[in-house]
Write a structure and sequence with these properties.
Layout (H helix, E strand, L loop, with lengths): L2 H25 L4 E3 L2 E3 L21 H18 L1
Antiparallel strand pairs: 1-2
């Protein structure tokens, strides 16, 4: 193998590696945060949507009811 053909082979391998690297990078979608904005990946239309319905405004209704009942019972015991 001559020096020239070896050099061409290395150049072709390097070009193929760079090209395949660019293909891999461009084929992947990534979410980016830019200036406080969260920009979607290129595949956001195909993503599965997770929907979380709105819950109750007050998160602890049972605890509040138990405290109210305890206060009422305490008030009755004082009499």
């Amino acid at each position: 193998m001559s020096h020239q053909s070896k050099k061409q082979r290395i150049t072709r391998l390097a070009a193929a590696a760079v090209f395949s690297g660019l293909c891999v990078i461009s084929a992947t979608g990534c979410q980016v945060s830019l200036n406080g904005q969260t920009l979607p990946s290129p595949y956001y239309l195909q993503d599965d949507i997770q929907y979380f319905p709105a819950g109750p405004e007050f998160k602890l209704p049972r605890e509040a009811a138990a405290l109210k009942a305890a206060r009422a019972e305490e008030k009755l015991d004082r009499r």
